[in-house]
Amino acid sequence: MALTFNVMENDVLRPMFLQAQMESELRGEKKGKAETLTGQLRRRFGDLPAWATDKIANAELVTLEEWSLRILDAPTLESVLAELS
Asked: Any residues with CB less than 8 A from the CB of 33 and at least 6 apart, and which?
């Protein structure tokens, strides 16, 4: 006989499940933004140096979003990936 239960009805497991789900969604969003930015930068500036791909891979979501806007008018790769002020 198989036992089934709904995690969302369990007061202990529900918060853990929701936290894991939220973290997974944020990781996916960050990965998607990083991939898009990398593609845009390659299109505009050519092959990226290792320091640039490392910086993108380690950036926070808000930073990736800012860099994605900077690419529209920044003259160099360095100016796109400059630290946020």
From this structure: 61, 64, 65, 68
Distances (CA, A) of 65 to 12, 49, 57, 69: 35, 20, 13, 7
CA distance 52 to 56: 6
For the full predicted model, state whether its pTM sits above 0.70: yes
Taking residue 54's Cβ as centre, other Cβ atoms within 10 Å add up to 11
The per-residue pLDDT for range 15-69, each reduced to its tens digit, is: 888 888 889 989 999 999 999 999 999 999 999 999 999 999 999 999 999 999 9
Q: Where along the chain do its domains lie?
A: 46-85
43, 48, 52, 56: CA torsion to nearest 10: 50
51 phi, psi to nearest 5 deg = -60, -35
